[in-house]
Write a structure and sequence with these properties.
Blueprint lengths: L2 H5 L4 E8 L1 H5 L3 H11 L2 E8 L3 H7 L9 H8 L4 E9 L1 H9 L12 H5 L8 E3 L3 H11 L13 H4 L2
Antiparallel strand pairs: 1-3, 1-4, 2-3
This protein binds guanosine-5'-diphosphate and magnesium ion.
Cofactor: Mg(2+)
EC number: 2.7.4.6
Protein name: Nucleoside diphosphate kinase
């Protein structure tokens, strides 16, 4: 993991997490949401959404030159996705750890991809890779009125 991510562990951050179409089709939505919920992060945005091609292209614009890019856009737009925004101290790096390596066969058991997937092209979930991208992607996938700021009843039981 990048040093700047480790250095940012103390900050309250937002991250964009998405159950990809394979995760929705395979009935893994509850399982995946549950892992972030049980960890103790705060859900601030959630919706089922059919992603238009233009949005998929904007989201993955950094990968445009990759040979798998056309297949990736087809994959992400092939059915509904579940869009989530999560907030918490150090949530960006922690969510990446919960998700596991990009290639599910390399991902550790106990991670979402390590437990629930076998192929990079069907790796069930997305998570932002930096605090900057967490903000950028949350703003890209959610309109302002779609996010909720609230205080979970469990807050004092998660942080002293
Ligand atoms: P992530 O941040 O772990 O999701 O990985 P990347 O940002 O590198 O890539 C974004 C997504 O593109 C991955 O989650 C995969 O769905 C897909 N992807 C990445 N590399 C490959 C590849 O080599 N082949 C295929 N088919 N898809 C890939
Ligand atoms: Mg990425």
């Amino acid at each position: 993991f990048l040093p700047h991510l480790v250095a940012s562990l103390e900050q309250v951050q937002q991250t964009y997490i998405m159950v990809k179409p394979d995760g929705v089709q395979r009935g893994l939505v509850g399982e995946i949401i549950s892992r972030f919920e049980r960890k103790g992060f705060k859900l601030i945005g959630l919706k089922l959404f059919q992603c238009p091609k233009e949005l998929a292209e904007e989201h993955y614009k950094d990968l445009k030159a990759k040979p798998f890019y056309p297949k990736l856009i087809d994959y992400i737009t092939s059915g509904p996705v579940v869009c989530m925004a999560w907030e918490g101290v150090g949530v960006v790096l922690s969510a990446r750890k919960l998700i596991g390596s990009t290639d599910p066969l390399q991902a550790e058991p106990g991670t979402i991809r390590g437990d629930l997937a076998v192929q990079t092209g069907r790796n069930v979930v997305h998570g932002s890779d930096s605090p900057e991208n967490g903000k950028r992607e949350t703003a890209l996938w959610f309109k302002e009125g779609e996010l909720c700021q609230w205080t979970p009843a469990q807050a004092p039981w998660l942080q002293e």
